[in-house]
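S.,

Sequence below, as promised.
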Amino acid sequence: MHAVIRFLLRWLGRPPRPDAAGDEGERLAADWLQRERGFQLVVRNWRNPADRREEIDLVCRDGEVLVFVEVKARAADALVPGYYAVTRRKKRILERAARTYLRSLRDRPRTFRFDIVEIGLPRDGTPAAPRILHFENVPLFPKHFRA
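The prediction came back faster than expected:
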């Protein structure tokens, strides 16, 4: 959807149409993390109630560790890999959202981290399975940050 149309829809209080590739990527990532890595899904598409622009794609548990996951779905042959699409600006937004999420918990976890899951979707009509790359413990929080 064109950026101007998205801006106008947000300005009018109407959310833009959901991104089908993004939704599919999040579903694939959640399924894969549960099946292949043994994660437990806590919540999908958590939004900060005070600032709806701050969203965490997936919040999971990896044993005792709370994991904030950003999912990047793109064409398998995209020029910019999903890992690099999580820019410094996006990381600042994710950190604010994660801080708010952690403050909202009654029992805060002792350990948490940030992961990125990149989903390489095949082009339409291609029978290939999606390529999934999991980047664990990506730097997001300051070194001595505590929940």
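The CA atoms of residues 2 and 127 lie 29 Å apart.

Coffee later?
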